[in-house]
Amino acid sequence: MATVGSDAARSSTPDPADLGKGHDHPALANGFPYALSPSVATLTDAGELLRALAAPVRIAIVLQLRHGPRCVHELVDALEVTQPLISQHLRVLKAAGVVQGERRGREVVYHLVDDHLAHIVVDAVAHVQEDAQPV
Prior knowledge:
Elements: H1 7-11, E1 28-29, E2 32-33, H2 40-52, H3 56-65, E3 70-71, H4 72-79, H5 83-95, E4 99-104, E5 107-112, H6 115-132
Antiparallel strand pairs: 1-2, 3-5, 4-5
Helix pairs in contact: 3-6
């Protein structure tokens, strides 16, 4: 597992002018979220979504699916984990609304519901990789 950088590097706060740059998400207008004070329900739902993404295998699944739809056996081969483990994590992602499955014959092909979720995962991985770089 990658090591995380120093506490000083993690504690720096982003420049508000940089928020949303590089992403064309409708929730970010002119670099600022529409709702600067989201409701408790919205914050709770966002926490549940992040919790669903908070496992290494689920992160790896999202990274695979951002390249296109995959069936379970393709994910098993790509991630080198067992089929029951992939299926278990897909159930969590499906329940959270991150992925959807479509039956094609005997297989179910999974895809991301929203590409913006892949941005969250890619940004998190990139952040950790940046922190892991020697200064």
